[in-house]
């Protein structure tokens, strides 16, 4: 009887309870992302006031608006400069780095069908470390001047990822070959870096170590155009593949049967995301935890649809990184703890909490 | 006779050990055709070759006289839908999103409301609308199988390929899933080609049966003519009594023929 009534209701154009629940679920995803974005804005406002120079939240926003409408606001020159040249670049850099790591981690986990995959599965961190070691110890570098280290990190990160992708493309580009080749190449380049470490002088060692910890200090306004260009090209390319990524998490055979060429998509995603990650890594060094964890956090909250999951992973990545960096800069001021260390120290307990408390424990089933 | 699907001289091998040897067959529209045969006879491989999940070395596969081997993958997906054996997911989606994936060959980046409505329609048709929000991994085997059939249905392909749709299901769900497939065929929604182990399920529901052994077709035709004691003896190496139940042959396996000889041979050696 109840069934008959419901049938009539559907035919009359009304929607069933499950359908309504689903629509609410979709709406909720959008709300979640907007909420996190608002939180980030708030967080930026607060974090930017912290530091050796006392600045109020109002002053921050005044300084920001002052750049666009110069005559309306009364901002102290020093304050303005600190905000504009030191604190903003760091926080915007943090946003972009977290966003990029989160997104790339998300798409890598999808195409590798592996919850342990991260932007560094393809040996990017080992490759860039090696590039740094090469520059620090032997003075061998691709670019000269201020880009000595950065240029090397970028080129060797890409070389490393490119080698792995090429290797697995010959063998058929399944997720297994990619992961295995990634691990092997990772070990190789780590060993090479260690070899350099072994022969390095104290000064060279310090250079290598600091870079390896992951830090946001290298960002400044003149570096953003490059990063933004890469982002503007690559991230839409990744987003465009959202449907195919949904389908690929099910398995290659099913993907092919629905019309998605799994191997081609996998290589495409690997190439594009490697470019994004290499671009960030050469400025920040390895901040490993974000790319692994942000996608999982996002998945726990909004589910597995990549049309929402990709941007949500990016936004959550940015949120975590900015938050952790805020703590890292101020907890034992004036000493600044490298961001990468603080991200893991703060992020791991939070992530453990989510694993234990979360409704969705299905990754481990 | 009209022909929906025609395969001619299909050859396929894994690392030079031949799996399919010059297979040819034809299937009429709106029929339910079962492929039976012992383990390793090439049933699943044949299904995967037809859907181009695997690429045959030679031979042609025509659907409505168009060669599948020369189509783009998206075009293949508009003509053929594939229902795999269900397995647990590493990153599970909910049922609605899982079924929505089947709309991929028909859409751009945005799914339209129409696509969503089609998914709900199919879920209603199969009686699993209530499960729309459940995670795929939480479902029972029978429910998972129905979700995978639903996904193939929203693909709106005229031919549906199924790989062991009743394996791992209890007898109630076996009948449930098979009658769903039979109904789709009867209403001329699809032509179904399925690989299946259970000879009696094949016999009860199929219009035609193709019997395979080591990559070749041994017999093909209606269930009565294929499921004979002689065929079962020569293909499976099993002595069986074939009876008739509701106008379809019913196979009762009695004992092994060849295997037993082989084992005694090994022992005496």
List keywords for this structure.
heterodimer; A: about 375 residues; mainly alpha; 15 helices; about 75% helix; about 0% strand; globular; disordered N terminus; B: about 270 residues; alpha/beta; Rossmann fold; six-stranded mixed sheet; four-stranded antiparallel sheet; disordered C terminus
What does this protein structure show overall?
The complex is a heterodimer of chains A (365) and B (269). Chain A has 365 residues and is an all-alpha fold. Chain A contains 15 helices and no strands. Chain A has helices at 2-11, 17-47, 57-68, 77-112, 124-138, 148-171, 175-199, 202-213, 224-240, 242-248, 252-257, 262-284, 288-302, 306-330, 339-357. The longest helix of chain A has 36 residues, at 77-112. The two termini of chain A are 39 Å apart. With 269 residues, chain B is an alpha/beta fold. Chain B has two domains: 5-227, P-loop containing nucleotide triphosphate hydrolases (Rossmann fold, 3-Layer(aba) Sandwich), CATH 3.40.50; 228-269, no CATH class. Helix content of chain B is 35%, strand content 29%. Chain B has ten helices and twelve strands. Chain B has helices at residues 43-50, 73-79, 95-100, 113-125, 141-154, 171-186, 199-205, 223-226, 229-236, 258-268; strands at residues 5-14, 17-27, 32-36, 58-63, 66-67, 80-83, 159-163, 191-195, 208-213, 216-221, 238-245, 248-256. In chain B, the strands form three sheets. Chain B has a six-stranded mixed β-sheet with strand order 6-7-8-3-9-10. In chain B, helix 4 (113-125) packs across helix 5 (141-154) and helix 5 (141-154) runs parallel beside helix 6 (171-186). The interface between A and B is large, with 38 and 41 residues.
């Amino acid at each position: 009887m109840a069934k008959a009534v419901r049938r009539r209701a559907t035919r009359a154009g009304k929607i069933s309870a499950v359908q309504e629940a689903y629509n609410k679920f979709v709406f909720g995803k959008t709300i979640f992302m907007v909420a996190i974005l608002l939180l980030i804005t708030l967080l930026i406002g607060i974090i930017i006031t912290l530091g050796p120079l006392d600045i109020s939240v109002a002053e921050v926003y005044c300084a920001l608006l002052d750049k666009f409408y110069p005559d309306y606001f009364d901002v102290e020159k020093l304050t303005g400069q600190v905000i504009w040249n030191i604190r903003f670049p760091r926080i915007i850099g943090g946003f972009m780095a977290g966003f990029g790591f989160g997104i790339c981690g998300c798409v890598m986990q999808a195409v590798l069908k592996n919850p342990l995959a991260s932007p560094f599965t393809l040996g990017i961190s080992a490759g860039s470390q090696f590039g740094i070691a090469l520059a620090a110890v032997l003075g061998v570098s691709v670019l000269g001047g201020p880009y000595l280290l950065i240029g090397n990190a970028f080129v060797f990160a890409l070389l490393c990822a490119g080698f792995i992708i090429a290797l697995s493309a010959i063998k058929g580009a399944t997720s297994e070959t990619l992961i295995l080749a990634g691990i092997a190449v990772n070990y190789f380049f780590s060993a090479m870096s260690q070899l350099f470490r072994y022969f390095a002088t104290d000064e060279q060692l310090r250079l290598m170590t600091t870079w390896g910890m992951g830090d946001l200090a290298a960002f400044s306004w003149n570096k953003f155009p490059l990063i933004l260009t890469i982002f503007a090209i690559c991230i839409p390319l990744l987003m465009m593949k959202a449907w195919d990524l949904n389908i690929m998490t099910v398995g290659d055979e099913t993907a092919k049967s629905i019309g998605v060429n799994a191997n081609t998509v996998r290589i495409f995603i690997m190439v594009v995301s490697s470019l994004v990650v290499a671009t960030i890594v050469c400025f920040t060094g390895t901040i490993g935890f974000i790319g692994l964890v942000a996608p999982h956090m996002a998945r726990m909250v909004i589910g597995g649809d990549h049309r929402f999951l990709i941007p949500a992973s990016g936004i959550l990545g940015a949120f975590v990184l900015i938050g952790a960096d805020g703590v890292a800069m101020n907890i034992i001021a004036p000493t600044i703890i490298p961001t990468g260390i603080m991200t893991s120290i703060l992020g791991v307990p939070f992530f453990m909490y989510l694993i234990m408390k979360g409704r969705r424990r299905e990754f481990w089933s | 006779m009209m022909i929906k699907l025609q395969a001619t001289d299909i050859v396929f091998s894994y690392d030079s050990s031949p799996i399919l040897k010059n297979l040819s067959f034809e299937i009429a529209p709106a029929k339910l055709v079962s492929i039976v045969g012992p383990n390793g006879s090439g049933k699943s491989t044949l299904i995967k070759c037809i859907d181009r999940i695997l690429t045959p070395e030679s031979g042609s596969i025509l659907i409505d006289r168009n060669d599948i081997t020369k189509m783009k993958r998206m075009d293949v997906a508009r003509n053929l839908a594939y229902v795999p054996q269900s397995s647990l997911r590493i990153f599970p989606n909910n049922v609605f999103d899982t079924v929505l994936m089947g709309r991929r060959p028909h859409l751009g980046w945005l799914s339209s409301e129409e696509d969503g409505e089609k998914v709900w329609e199919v879920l209603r048709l199969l009686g699993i609308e209530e499960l729309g929000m459940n995670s795929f991994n939480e479902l029972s085997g029978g429910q998972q199988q129905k979700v995978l059939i639903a996904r193939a249905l929203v693909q709106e392909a005229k031919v549906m390929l199924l790989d062991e749709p009743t394996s791992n299901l209890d007898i109630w769900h076996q009948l449930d899933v098979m009658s769903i497939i039979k109904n789709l065929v009867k209403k001329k929604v699809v032509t179904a080609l399925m690989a299946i182990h259970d000879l009696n399920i094949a016999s009860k529901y199929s219009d035609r049966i193709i019997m395979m052994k080591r990559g070749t077709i041994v017999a093909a035709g209606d269930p009565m003519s294929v499921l004979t004691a002689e065929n079962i003896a020569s293909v499976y190496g099993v002595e069986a009594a074939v009876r008739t139940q509701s106008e379809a042959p019913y196979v009762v396996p009695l004992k092994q023929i060849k295997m037993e000889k082989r084992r005694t041979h090994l022992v005496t050696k």
